[in-house]
Amino acid sequence: MTETLGKRGFRGALSGGAEHPHYKWVALSNTTLGMLIATINSSIVLISLPAVFNGIHLDPLSPGNVSYLLWMLMGYMLVSAVLVVTLGRLGDMYGRVRIYNAGFALFTVTSIALSLDPFDGGGGALWLIGWRVLQAVGGAMLMANSAAILTDAFPAAQRGMALGVNIVAGIAGSFIGLVLGGLLAEWNWRAIFWVNVPIGVIGTIWAYRSLHDTGVRRPGRIDWWGNLTFAVGLTALLAAITYGIQPYGGHSQGWTNPWVLAGLIGGVLVLGLFTWIERRVAEPMFPLGLFRIRAFASGNVAGLLASIARGGLQFMLIIWLQGIWLPLHGYRYEETPLWAGIYLLPLTVGFLAAGPIAGHLSDKYGQRIFAAVGLLVMALSFAGLLILPTDFSYWAFAALVFLNGLGGGLFAAPNTALIMSSVPAHLRGTASGMRATFQNAGMVLSIGVFFSLMVAGLSSHLPGTLDQGLTAQGVPPGAAHTIAGLPPVGTLFAAFLGYNPVASLLGPNLLGQLPAANAATLTGREFFPHLVSGPFHDGLVIVFWLAIGMSVVGALASLVKPGLTGQTRQARDG
């Protein structure tokens, strides 16, 4: 044994090989680091966008630059959603650890390229978007195979605990990124990419030297037509939903835009073609037979609904804090992205507190009840936020977002364990990718769904309220009416990015024509929050009722008893 360890050096001492009793903990540590860094980067840019665009000298609120803003927001999540199934399938075929390790290396290289952006303006934005797309490929390689590696490494009695630590770290990463991005962007916008480099280098070397494939590898062929139609269809559909929040043709939203309609209809048709192909190829990338396994099908339905609700909550709370609550409590708009992340820390604490515990207990008492209770706790927190006044007491707000995080933590690990334990060993990489697809697609869908609902809620009351408020401060009636008639999505984006919405809407020329006292009032910290509180709460009512409905339906799906709805062999063979 001593001689063997000597030959293996650091690799053998750390893991002792796949059969070593400590190997599972090495796998858990490394894959948790991988998940954490991948998901932190889904939100670290989101909170740092003002600093990033200032750094490349580009106004993100200019009409011609909104596309850059949207692709910086959704590009990473969209690419992850499209590719995780394919990369999970490649892991089943060529080795999950091999694909995972390559993902760590690619993620590190692209982080270096992102930090070295040499351009300004639109060129600088395109550089960042392009390298973010490649970074998302690396992140998808990590996300697609980490759960499968853990499912291979841990016995069934400890699997829920291991997946709980891994998945909750991943989900918490999206909230940790908000705080980390705010802190780093205050220093230098490039630091949000630099921070990945040392972690990525250590993680890559550690993964290559310590991880081993322990699962069943099944040689096969790539389903090229399935991959192509899935990528095209899902990209078109999710991109169209996201672009639907942009105004078009005098409407506050873009759902009548021919390109949006083409993306929606075309995306559905191409995904229909994808389904037809998958039913006929010998080795599909998306084994539809897995959906005949009740635990797999119901678990993914619950996971998708929870992801949409969680993503919508994240966006709405950021706007609520940055656009209303923080300015009312003395924070400058430029400071609000950082402090919004800090004030949302109870959400992350709730996730971290509940996740590993729920995973451990679900190993003993069953996953379904914990997953269902978790979503019901989330629904309860949404109901509490629904009745919270716009200018709330922070401790009541903190308790409710902590409760939401607690519910999410109770749900995440048991749900993942339920899904991953229900599939045959040789399809765990594919199943992990499919689960991640639903989760990532839910985050992208939440942008379109919840922004659209919020805009719909604002559209009925904000124009009149804004018109009266501006006129009362001396803005010429014609200008006030024109500004009040602008689509509310611009106001939401301004608040979301930490800009003073009124200053952005009026512009320096119009502000310069007003008396100094009036201009100071309009651009102060209290005018916009007081003005928008009522209309914003109308939008929140719509948003949170939908989130409650999604959470309750997801809880019911989680309670579906495990079993097969079709023939066992067909389901397991895909």
TrEMBL record:
Gene source species: Dactylosporangium fulvum
Signal peptide: none
UniProt keyword Transmembrane, yes or no: yes
Entry keyword set: Cell membrane, Membrane, Transmembrane, Transmembrane helix, Transport
Database matches in PROSITE patterns: MFS
Designated name of the protein: MFS transporter
Bilayer topology annotation: Multi-pass membrane protein
Location in the cell: Cell membrane
Domain Major facilitator superfamily (MFS) profile, first and last residues per copy: 27-502
Domain of life from the UniProt record: Bacteria
TM segment ranges: 33-56, 68-87, 99-116, 128-150, 162-185, 191-208, 228-246, 258-277, 298-326, 338-357, 369-388, 394-420, 441-462, 539-560
Coiled-coil regions listed in the entry: none
Keyword Ligase: no
